[in-house]
Amino acid sequence: MSSLYERLGAADGIRRIVDDVVANHLVNPVVNVRFRHVKDLPHLKEMAFQFFCMGSGGPQSYQGKDMRSAHQGMNISEQEYLAVMDDIVAALHKHGVDDDSRNEVVAILYALKGEVIRV
């Protein structure tokens, strides 16, 4: 069986997915205010790209903060977290990622929620 990284389209596919995820966040009324004011969107995209690659079994290393540190003091609500997950799933669906792979990504995201929500 191929790795999740490969099923997401490897580096090129993940970069396209991340671009669409961020675009989705920017128009999502639940979370767009958090993303409209990001001073360095290219950096945010690069960190998300590295995180997705590493977390899905790719060879890239993640050079960013751990999830708790990255979201510390943001007081992210459950509603915001679910909106972000919906944006990610929509991007995965747009890029033809199969149901099992999408479900695997959702499971990973759920495993991280304690490091992001209300920290």
TrEMBL record:
Give the transmembrane region(s).
none
Cofactor(s) required for function per UniProt: heme
Q: Which UniProt keywords apply?
A: Heme, Iron, Metal-binding, Transport
- Record's InterPro entries? Globin-like_sf (IPR009050), Globin/Proto (IPR012292), Globin_bac-like_CS (IPR019795), Hemoglobin_trunc (IPR001486)
This protein's record includes keyword Heme: yes
Q: Keyword Phosphoprotein, does the record have it?
A: no
Kindly provide the name given to this protein in its UniProt entry. Answer: Group 1 truncated hemoglobin
